[in-house]
Amino acid sequence: MTSKPKAIVFFDLDGTLLTRDVTVASSTIDAINHLYENNIMPIIATGRTVCEVQHIMQQAKINSIVAMNGQSVFYQGEHIFSNNIDKHVIERLVDFSKTQTNIPLAFYNDKIMRISELGEPAEIFYHYLKQSIPPVDNDIYRQEPIQMMLLLCQSGEEQYIKQFPELNFIRNTPYCVDVFNHGGSKAFGIKKLLENKGFLDVPTYAFGDGLNDIEMFKMVDHSIAMGNSVEPLKQLAEFITDDNNHHGIANALKKLGLI
């Protein structure tokens, strides 16, 4: 791989790079290997944090990531950027959840994941992700920088949107809402990466399926929606490939002439 890639391809994880059983299809791994051979850089762009997807990155042989919806960025293992939430804002949100909504929270940075309390919302969400429930520590934000929080709920985020204009609230699954600094997005993190590495002139592609991929689709040169994508994303896409369980990534990369 030369210092500047011929192109960059950003891959969302859940519903895109990952199949329904939360693994990377063999056809996708083969396609990623071909991208490297063609001097094209694959990069993960996800709502998840680095520490929870290390095994996926190893399986896919990808060591660059735009994590937590653009709030933390690594390129070939090098830390590029982090967008920490102000501790006073977190403190207000913690108090609002405790006194007004009773919605439990999760706290994320590159290295740790914590939750505010054990209970059914946490059990349902992490079972959905097929992950272990993180440890409980409702005061972690006092000791650690936090780049993203989660509202562990199936509804109710509207109350927060009015109270916290300095934050973005994006529903990423039926069981949680991603919370990060206003203006943050996968596109924001991608821009930081391209600027930092001098890659603004490199052609960019993105694969996604969810609402948190909308800004990314608007920013890159070529956008590809999975067959299982939500309708608003399909409407933005340059074209729609097969779904994540039927070789959608490999088939699209071939059609694009990237492999």
From TrEMBL:
GO CC annotation terms, alphabetical: cytosol
Protein name: Cof subfamily protein (Haloacid dehalogenase superfamily)/HAD superfamily hydrolase (TIGR01484 family)
GO molecular function: magnesium ion binding; phosphatase activity
Pfam families xrefs: Hydrolase_3
Native species: Orbus hercynius
Domain of life of the source: Bacteria
NCBIfam families xref list: Cof-subfamily, HAD-SF-IIB
